[in-house]
Design goal:
The protein is of the alpha+beta class and 588 residues long. 52% of the residues lie in helices and 24% in strands.
Amino acid sequence: MNFKRLFFLIFLFSLFFLSFIHFFIFHFLKYNILSLKKKQSEDIVLAVETYFQNELDKLLGLTKDWAAWNDAYYFILQNKNSNFEKTNIIKETFFNLKIDLLLYTYLNGIPKAGGFYDKERNKIYINKNEANKIAHILFPLIKKKKFTKFLFYNEKPFMLAIYPVLKSDFRGPEVGYLFMGKFVTPEEISNLKKFLKIKHLELLKSINPFSEIKFLKVDLNEIVLEKRGFLNEKDLTLRITYPVEKHFINNIIFRLVLSQILWLLLFGLILLLLFSRYLISPLSNLVKEIKEIKEQKRSLVSTEYKIEEIKNLAKNINEYIQDIVLREKIYATIAEKIENLILLFDKNKNIFFQNKNITKYFNSEEIQFLIEDCLTWIKKDKIEYKEQKIKDFWLKFHLIPLYKDLYLFIGEDITKIKAREDELFKMATYDFLTNLYNRKYFEDTLERVFAASKRGEKFILLFIDCDDLKKINDTYGHLIGDEILKKVAYAIKSSIRKEDIASRWGGDEFTVILYHCKKEEGIIIAKRILKTLEKSEIKINSQTIKPAVSIGLVEIDGTKELKEILNLADKLAYLAKKQNKDKIKFII
């Protein structure tokens, strides 16, 4: 039986049937209906915009009528007709005109008369801050010959108009401004929704300066869209929710969806039975056998299957298993023969392989600690190569991620190599007699210190010259002279700080770099060297020899060149020796 042919025919037939119903009927119908409804919703946005624009125009017309009026003109200009405010700016005016703001101001925006009408307190009021706020909004518009604005005032949508106060024949000069405004009430919004047959209408603040319509939701229940830049106001957005009248289409869609579900269930049931018999059951059995191989309960999987593809798969799995077993034996043999330490483990600290060499260095508990360290290194540094001192020996090792959370540790004992490196480094950098750094190492360090001084760091150079060493060599021999050098080296090393560098410059001369040190601190350390030497002595038979030195001290602060610093330190040490020796000489 050909499994591929069977399932290909079933799949092709079901795919064709469901695709025809879904894509050529359902989606086509849905697309056309929603396109029509989107166009209708855009028309509603236009209608809302037209409505509010008309309201703004009406408000502007009313503002013009009240602004171009001789009584108002002379009331502001000469404060004549003192009864103007009492007879015109009253609560009945607000009721009759259906407005919330009527405010006359001077040309600078300072209120003259009127204000907001508070219906709850039955009071007309205004304050300077509110007048300035309104004037700040509308004055820039007057320069552009724009006399209306739709905005949010006290978090409520508000229509506002302004017009210069002129004579009744619309002649000037202008003597002030008239502000008129009204809030958009919930009742007004509700009536507009009923008239336009929309579900929801909301005016919002916006930060988008562009005028555009954006659809937020489009489905067979409702369409939600926004008009940003509503009424050409960059900070105003209109959002409406338009219900989709879908009784007829819902019935058709319901029938189509129901038929799809029934056919899908039918084909699904058939496919499930076929898949269960010819695919799922054999594959489940194959997975079970693979698990048993992993648990070492069997060595190979069964190949007795009716489906040709699964039978071939089982044969291929057996070939891979046999190949893996063979490779595992080869790798295990190689791992036991080489001198490296081999350890294979996972993130849960399970050990899959370890060769005998690793047990020579670690017991079982130490191996677990080693694995924990490896996992920490991988997590922190993501390293594949590292040199680490473990216990009393050095290991050079690789940490190699193999598969998912499986890691291979390959280690090499480099204890002898590290010891030889340390020995070579010491030979290259230390003076064998005094155990201080040699001149070459000191010169390299001095170069770095000099560069740091150019960046503003402070250092001190001590140039130390042994007193009367040639005389001691001639009188008592060079062995005693060497002892003097050792005593001086010990006094220097025990007197300086841990971070400071001391070296044997050559013959009977020593040099010291005091890190991040001022002159006063350097003098203290130099005196400490002299004091230590005072307690030091060498006895030869009945004679006692006391080592002594002369010290030149120079600041390394970036103001002198390196050669100049060395010459100056040498010269100061020479002057110290010339002045009765056992002295410190420095530049004040």
